[in-house]
Design a protein that fits this description.
By secondary structure, the chain is an alpha/beta fold. The protein is 27% helix and 20% strand. The chain has one domain: 3-Layer(aba) Sandwich (Rossmann fold).
Length: 205
């Protein structure tokens, strides 16, 4: 599966290019990720997850493959496909009909049977069924305030991986601990106690 990730990433990029012309994309694409607004009451947006980088991060964690991974905000499936290279079961949630359909088409075209995409709003669901949770930021308005109590409700030892630009206050040290600080992490000038990295990984105490 890992050997196929570059091909899958190219397919995702092609769909991004088809969905949104470069002139309509957010300035943050200069960092290597396609970013564009979506319709919805929470002002959602899409931002692609770099498949190879996430796969490398998951490899560094050395978790058992028999985990059930929950991906909150599938987009075009990048993070789910990266997780599928390391885990036996991945369930992803995407509320946007167009993104859901595109992700499902990519999944089927590569025959990835241990990934399931569900067109649902994960904010209405419990996260307790998952041993590993991944999210970036699936909507802009109030996301961190909304996700914080859901993360507190996860089971002890749940591994939570989040993308860059995270709000550190949702990971209260009383309830979460770093999973495995990686070599090369450096202090963020704004949050000197909080490592600056592409992905942040915590464990629910």
């Amino acid at each position: 599966m890992r050997a196929r990730l570059p091909e899958i990433q190219r397919r995702v990029k092609a769909v991004e290019d088809r969905l949104v012309p470069p002139e309509r994309r957010d300035i943050f694409e200069q960092f290597g990720d396609a970013v564009f607004q979506l319709p919805g009451v929470r002002e959602p947006h899409y931002q692609g997850t770099p498949i190879i980088e996430l796969s490398d991060h998951l490899e560094s964690l050395q978790l058992s493959p028999n985990k059930h991974v929950g991906v909150l905000g599938v987009g075009l499936g990048s993070s789910s496909f990266a997780a599928a290279a390391h885990f036996d079961r991945v369930t992803g949630f995407e509320d946007n009909a167009e993104l859901y359909a595109e992700a499902e088409a990519i999944r089927k075209s590569f025959g990835i049977d241990h990934v399931e995409f569900r067109r649902e709003d994960f904010m209405s669901l419990s996260l307790r069924p998952f041993n590993v949770i991944f999210f970036f930021r699936s909507f802009a308005i109030g996301f961190f305030q909304a996700i914080a109590p859901k993360l507190l409700d996860t089971n002890p030892e749940t591994v939570i991986i989040s993308g860059k630009y995270m709000e550190p206050e949702i990971y209260d040290p009383a309830n979460f601990t770093y999973f495995k600080p990686l070599d090369g992490w450096r202090p963020d000038p704004e949050f000197p106690y909080f490592p600056l990295a592409k992905f942040y990984t915590f464990v629910r105490k």
